Amino acid sequence: MKKSYLYTILSVLLSGVLFSCHELDVPVTTELTPEVFPSNTEQFVSASGPVYVALRGNYGVEYFFQQSFSTDESIMPARGGNWFDGGQNQTMHYHTWTQDNGYLNGNWYWLSTIIGVANQTVNILSTTMPAGAAKNTNLAEIKTVRAFAYFMMMDNYGNVPIDTVYGDFSPKTNVARAEVFKFIEKEINAAIPYLSEISSTATYGRPNKWTAYALLAKMYLNAEEYTGTKRYDDCIAACDKVISSGLYAIEPRASYLKMFYPQNGPQMKEFIFAIPYDPAMSNSFPFRSVNIHSRYQVPRSARQKFSLPFTPAGSASTLPEFYAHFNDPNDIRNGQWLTGLQYQSDGSPLTVQTTKLGLDQFYKGSDGATPVTYHVNLTPEVVLRQDVSAFDAGNDELAWNMGYRNIKFYPDATSLSRNQNNDIPVFRYSDILLMKAEAILRGGAATLGSSAVALVNQVRSQRTTSPTLSSIDLESIYAERSREFAFEGWHRNDMIRFGKYEGKWGYKTNADKYRRIFPIPRSAFQLNPNIKQNPGYQ
């Protein structure tokens, strides 16, 4: 089974261990103590389980929204008041968020929880686990997860506190982003000698040595943004470590879309590190810990088409500016989109029985109650027809079917709830190749006999039947990344690096550069008076 490892650790762990974790400077309490647990080999392995449970937390929903709704990749307007959610989706789109935005608060809390649980688990295992290779590997894996959590905090919030000592609950001040970068880099490099070199079902969902190098590559590619210093040769060196391992390959064109299906897992040759999701998984933290992409991306009229046991909301869609990257008719990646007139799986039209007024709430005729059969048609533009100030497109069929929909994480008809079985990849081999190509174009030295265009063509050869590229530039790399990693949580990171985050799309015109990092939430200040707000925010 694709999740055999996590089933093992969670079945042992979640039967009796409950965590209560808050901000970085608030104590983490648990029934797991050196006096009662662990005491044997299986329990030592299981003791790392809470770290992975915490990591699963917001990654599939709230964290994705923060990365995506703040870009041209996706938008979630209100429809007749539905999904306004206190304006958090609106301010994400307009780049007018404040420190009270729900996503910013929730994700700070989530990332702080991962760090707090990792600190506690490292403390317990360091004290109770017998010395040896197993201990070194287990601790290195936990510290790598913690480093990844710190990376997400640094990438999103910039200047954050650093705390690695469980039991020291004195308030910490936040440190400069460049210092956080150095801390993460040091932590990863210290873990690498002890991380496993194996990539298999047995290690799936846990970071191995190649996960650590992939994370370093991502950091070095963005190092100029984080620290002011270019690190492109270091990015290339980290990518080469993964390439030279020989463990990963580009998923063939015929199975690209299947990488994101409910049956995905360790058999996917591109997956360097993925977060497993399964409706049967338990959760002991105050996070949803689910993958519910179908709930938000599938049109509500398409329940029968995908044989879903629930009615999807279909509330999130892409923007024309982002979809414009999908301009190659021979590209298999076009298959992740629902566009235009929709049809059932048997080829018959997907229709909705409504009225003239139900189809168009602004219909002015006297026969608004006349029944009509509407052939569902997903249109590219999202128009705030009902109320621009309330970010509202309206509450009729025309409004509900505005915007093309992404179904990369293909709807899971086997789940009895909105939660899907689709695992979410964090690092893929195609990202390694495209990061290396970009680093070369930005001034790094080519290695292993591969030019930037050759690296990009390695990916494209398994994505499109169109001719290979004879040349490549940064704009081409950006477009390729947009096609390859759509809805995987990396687009904000890419837009910032390519200088596009201050651009105009949809209804957004704000070009404030300080918004490349988010404000530290108000709740963090309430718990830790030593924190200082990021520049530009009150």
UniProtKB/TrEMBL annotation:
<comment type="similarity">
    <text>Belongs to the SusD family.</text>
</comment>
<keyword id="KW-0998">Cell outer membrane</keyword>
<dbReference type="InterPro" id="IPR011990">
    <property type="entry name" value="TPR-like_helical_dom_sf"/>
</dbReference>
<dbReference type="InterPro" id="IPR012944">
    <property type="entry name" value="SusD_RagB_dom"/>
</dbReference>
<protein>
    <submittedName>
        <fullName>RagB/SusD family nutrient uptake outer membrane protein</fullName>
    </submittedName>
</protein>
<feature type="signal peptide">
    <location>
        <begin position="1"/>
        <end position="20"/>
    </location>
</feature>
<keyword id="KW-0472">Membrane</keyword>
<keyword id="KW-0732">Signal</keyword>
<feature type="domain" description="RagB/SusD">
    <location>
        <begin position="216"/>
        <end position="537"/>
    </location>
</feature>
<dbReference type="Pfam" id="PF07980">
    <property type="entry name" value="SusD_RagB"/>
</dbReference>
